[in-house]
């Protein structure tokens, strides 16, 4: 593969998530992540919203889901967001709690025993698994899952 191969320049564009209640999900993602609705449709059978961080499209929410997220089905495992510091993780934790998100672990945990990276693991209103992490600051905390990444089997 040559350096000019376009695959060397790929970046994640945005992630689309099916939700059961568009308005509820918009409120949650605005409150936790600070995203803003860039565009939305409330057409019959065509409800969706584009959530942006500044001028960047990050998530699309599609009201076409039924029931809760099922981790046993093939597809999305979890969606992860990185923040600069452990203080940012802790601030996000407070926002998740205020928005009614369900936490998987108590507080920020490392990605594995002895790892300095880690964060919080939680669910959105439909049970979609989410993570907000930082690259450093958790090396002295204990990992909740022995022998596997904390983000792997929650």
Outline the structure in words:
The N and C termini lie far apart (37 Å). This protein folds into two domains: 1-64, Roll (2,3-Dihydroxybiphenyl 1,2-Dioxygenase, domain 1), CATH 3.10.180.10; 77-154, Roll (2,3-Dihydroxybiphenyl 1,2-Dioxygenase, domain 1), CATH 3.10.180. It is α+β, with helices and mostly antiparallel strands. It is 17% helix and 32% strand. The mean pLDDT is 93. Strand 8 and strand 9 form a beta hairpin.
Any guess at the CATH architecture of the largest domain? Roll
Percentage of residues assigned to helices:
10-25%
Number of domains: 2
Using only C-alpha atoms, the radius of gyration works out to: 17 Å
How far apart are the termini? 37 Å
What structural class is derived from the secondary structure elements? alpha+beta
Helical stretch tally: 2
| CATH fold topology of the largest domain | 2,3-Dihydroxybiphenyl 1,2-Dioxygenase, domain 1
Proportion of beta-strand residues: 25-35%
CATH class of the largest domain: Alpha Beta
Q: Tally of extended strands?
A: 9
Question: Unreliable stretches, pLDDT < 50, 5 or more residues?
Answer: none
Average pLDDT level? 93
Largest sheet: 5 strands, mixed
**CATH homologous superfamily assignment of the largest domain:** 2,3-Dihydroxybiphenyl 1,2-Dioxygenase, domain 1
